[in-house]
Task: structure prediction
Amino acid sequence: MTPFMVEANKEDPLREMLTNYQQVLAKVAQEYGILLGDTQEKFDDFLLYQSSYVLSSDRVHPSTAGHVLIAKTWLETVGILEEKP
Result:
């Protein structure tokens, strides 16, 4: 699972730093053939329609809804749950 930040602004300094970590993780996962759930992508998709406060009050620690989104991403990644468009 990729590290994530509940922040829609991709130019936020912390978000930019986290993007670098996500890229390194994706490269390692690809190199070793490891499954990788893109949690950040799921959070970004959610933020297109809802406020970030639904997922986290401080951009880092997930709320119950944030934990559900993480769990759903994991279930889709390992093939237990089919991803819905």
In short: The longest helix spans residues 13-32. The chain is about 50% helix and 0% strand. The radius of gyration is 13 Å.
